[in-house]
Amino acid sequence: MKKLFLFGFTLLFFVQCTSIKRHNKHLNDLMAEEKLKSDVDFTYRKLRDLHPNLYWYINKKDLDYKFDSLKSTITKPMTRFEFYKKISPVVAAVRQGHITVYPPTKLMTKKETKALLKRGTGPFSQFDFELFDGKLYVVKNKSYDKTIKTGTEVVAVNGTKPINLIKQYNKFYSSDGYNTTFKTHFSGKRFSTFFTNENGIKDSIKFNFKFNDSIKTITIRRKAEDTIGKHLKKNQKKLAAIDKTKSKANRKKKRVHGYYSVEKNYNRNLHFLEKDSSVALMKIRSFKIGDSKTFYKESFSKIATYQSKTLVLDLRNNGGGRLNEIADLYSYLADSTFVFLDKSEVVSKSSLFKGAYFHGGSFGIKALKTIFSPLMYSYLLLTVHKNKNGKNYYATQTKPHKVNKNAFKGKVYVLINGGSFSASSIISSNLKGSKRAFFVGEETGGAYNGTIAGFMPRVKLPNTDIKIRIGLMFIAPHFKTAPEGRGIFPDIEIIPTLEDRIKENDPEMNWILNDVKSNISEISKTK
Fold first, then answer.
1. What is the DSSP letter of 492?
2. In a 3-state reduction of DSSP, which class is residue 17?
3. Least buried of 159, 223, 252, 498, by fewest C-beta within 10 Å?
4. pLDDT tens-digit readout, 32-49
5. pLDDT tens-digit profile of 126-175?
6. Beta 310-314 vs 411-416: how paired, if at all?
7. What number of other Cβ atoms are within 10 A of residue 62's Cβ?
């Protein structure tokens, strides 16, 4: 049995390596017009087969015209990457942020990836960038060159002007609906991805920087690991292992809070901002990794013990995650029994069965799925129902939820921005609609009235091998708003400036703390 397993693993590894080599070898081949047009038809067919609300933000006539026009422009053979640039804007016209067309790029084997990581941190990873007034700036410098200050403008990268590339790539993806904050927020952060798509992974990059009207050219090279620091960390780990109690507590915190090893920070955090612990700050970077149920149980128990009067929920840059987590979190914030989601519309039972269940996985996983497919299909027969309107619905988080016994009863502030998307927008919709929270920041990147997500398979086009991620479920919060296709608007709009980044100032949080103190003063005066 062991020999059979080893043979299977070796065979799988060989097939994978061969597949990667074949992909890279033909990456820049010119593809015939007929094959490209066939992939256009395949893309539109898959969108119609899987997407439950395809014509939400664009009518059928206009989308038909866009796909037909795309085919008419394909008049000669082109590479996969050229085709990606043609089809992406058409798919983006659906205006659904979860739909993603992935560019065809060079693949790496595990061995090559390991060797690259061993060479150290790449040039782009040594900076954090943001876009302000159409210009790209360094907002955090993690490179070996400490002369590059926060607030330095990136004029050019290897001769490319950032804004030109950003404008081009902003046509290739969309937010949910019609808002602009999502792209404004993410385009600067994604610039390095755009550049790498065009030029591949680089070990050194020439930057033209501008600071205080002075322009200088600096070449940033891949930064090798700090071997001395690494050695010290090993010793620290040995010392930490001596204190087993502390080591066990650290492991539990990483498991419960969720730990990002690259960024070296936690996915969820709870802090108390005043000496009397009257203000609790809960920062949630995503609704993904970690044991969220334990985190919220322990956190709200602690908030109750400290008798905090105010809770600040920071959802800025939270790109979303698990539905069951946000429903659980909402049970600690709601003031009465609630319904969290409407029933989720799907195209059909088969769209979930074929599109989600049978999608992805190795040969072995697919074999297991085939064995258990009768059970899965039986489950879908029981859970997916056709409504009176003739549409199919899948129920998740639709039953009335009771408020948690440790639910917070005080004032709730929620921090949002263009990076608040998907699940963070869903919970924000319910908090806004129920008037349970006061919102500070800017319009969310996700739409108020829901999104197309849930199961999101990556569909591979048969000829170009380009992959497109498509959401299968129309997930809608219980509360709705009149302006269709817009996000959750803040009660107080505050948008950070470049100056705020330079001074490490948090204007949104500062406003909340001042408002809390102001309210306390007003209460004191009335007594």
1. E
2. helix
3. 159
4. 999 999 999 999 999 999
5. 999 999 999 999 999 999 999 999 999 999 999 999 999 999 999 999 99
6. parallel
7. 10
Nearest to 184 by CA among 130, 103, 128: 130
**Residue in this structure with the two tokens 């397993």, named with its chain if needed:** 5
Task: Report the alpha-carbon distance of residue 448 to residue 486 in Å, rounded.
Answer: 6
Q: What angle do CA 462, 467, 471 make, to 5 degrees?
A: 115
Burial class (CB in 10 A: 0-12, 13-18, 19+), 358: middle
Distances (CA, A) of 450 to 168, 307, 329, 477, 487: 28, 34, 18, 6, 9
Rounded CA-CA distance 481/179 in Å is: 14
The phi and psi torsions of 482 (rounded to 5 degrees) equal -70, -50
Checking if the pLDDT of 12 tops 50, the result is no
What sign for the dihedral angle of Cα 98, 99, 103, 105?
positive
CB-CB contact of 174 with 99 (8 Å): yes
pTM: 0.88
CA atoms of 131 and 283, how far apart (whole Å): 23
Distance CA 477, CA 279 (A): 28
Rounded-to-integer distance, Cα 280 and Cα 408, Å: 11
What's the CA gap between 326 and 330, in Å, rounded?
6
Supply 99's token pair: 């739909």
Joined together, the tokens standing for residue 297 give: 């149980």
CA 314: distance to chain centroid?
Answer: 16
